[in-house]
Write a structure and sequence with these properties.
single chain, alpha/beta, Isopropylmalate Dehydrogenase, 12 strands
Length: 336
């Protein structure tokens, strides 16, 4: 029986890299069925809504999403599409792996770090945000719950155990934010006690950022709250060459969404030179989520081999190829 996936091509370069990614998935004989849906500027122009009801219904029905980059219009009245989807489907775990790949613009080698970020609460959501009438003061609430802290920490430790990881670093700011970050740290300590086989350490967020750029090899899995995780996961992407190689998964109890975390790059849209690797690596995360680990490994290895050979790769990774030619090279290696 085939698995149906809601496919959101996205804005800008999204449709180009999505087409390339679906080609490599088909080459893996995955027997997926794709249900196209729309969000972002394309949806706003066609349907008058950034996230049409039909898209939400498709996700609720299929519970599995592969999503290209989306553009949220700048200005008041437009809430982040990604934040809305995470809240709507309670996609509480944001999982961002970074791995060193050949041929990339990076100052580091042998990086292999996973950031697990709480996705549905905390400062990032700007609860009850308001600006005073005179425009001289702005405020918003930071709200965390014991449930939210517990389930994200447990997800990180369960993932570490499942994937043979050795260490989880709990990142916080409990020395200053004693209530909200203190709660996260207290709950994380309680959870870590249930995993004696996994080394657990604690680190203040600013020290974490410093140590990531000085000695990133000390990190294995990082678990943290929403805003800190947003910053740290992008920092980690910089260690391996940037967001063009950074996939992301958003996992909940009843749905999961996999995406390229870079932007829609409207400046190169339609030129056929966008690197599809981030979305392809997100597709590999999706395969692993579906217990299709052999296919996930084949896809990751084909990407690595193509980058190492610089075989028909896009200009950002040192080639003069196109999105299509890079997909051709990866498909050929999958089928070899």
């Amino acid at each position: 029986m085939s698995t149906k996936i809601t496919v959101i091509p996205g804005d800008g370069i999204g449709p180009e890299i999505m087409n390339a990614t679906l080609r490599v998935l088909d080459a893996l004989d995955t027997d997926f069925e794709y249900e196209e849906a729309f969000a972002g500027l394309a949806a706003l122009e066609a349907h008058g809504d950034l996230i049409p009801d039909a898209t939400l219904e498709s996700i609720a029905r299929n519970k599995l999403v592969l999503k290209g980059p989306l553009t949220t219009p700048v200005g008041k009245g437009f809430r982040s599409i990604n934040v809305t989807l995470r809240k709507e489907f309670d996609l509480y775990a944001n999982v961002r792996p970074v791995v060193s790949l050949p041929g990339t613009r990076s100052n580091f080698e042998n990086i292999d770090i996973i950031t697990v970020r709480e996705n549905t609460e905390g400062a990032y959501l700007a609860a009850d945000a308001q600006v005073s009438e005179d425009g001289k003061q702005a405020e918003s609430k930071t709200i965390v719950t014991r449930k939210g802290c517990e389930r994200i920490t447990r997800y990180a430790f369960d993932m570490a155990r499942r994937e043979g990881r050795k260490k989880v670093t709990i990142v916080h700011k409990a020395n200053i934010l004693k209530a909200v970050s203190g709660m996260f740290l207290d709950v994380a300590r309680e959870v870590s006690a249930d995993y004696p086989d996994i080394e657990s350490s604690e680190m203040i967020v600013d020290a974490t950022c410093m140590k990531l750029v000085m000695d990133p090899w000390q990190f294995d899995v990082i678990v943290t709250t929403n805003l800190f995780g947003d910053i740290i996961s992008d920092l980690c992407a910089g260690l391996v060459g940037g967001l063009g190689l950074a996939p992301g998964a958003n996992i909940g109890e009843n749905a999961a969404m996999f995406e390229a975390v870079h932007g829609s790059a409207p400046d190169i849209a339609g030129q056929g030179i966008a690197n599809p690797c981030a979305l392809m690596l997100a597709a590999a995360q999706m395969l692993a989520h579906l217990d299709m680990e052999p296919q996930a490994r084949r896809l990751r290895q084909a990407i690595r081999d193509t980058l190492e050979a610089r075989d028909r790769v896009t200009p950002d990774v040192g080639g003069n190829g196109s999105t299509r030619s890079m997909a051709d090279a990866i498909v050929e290696r999958i089928q070899a």
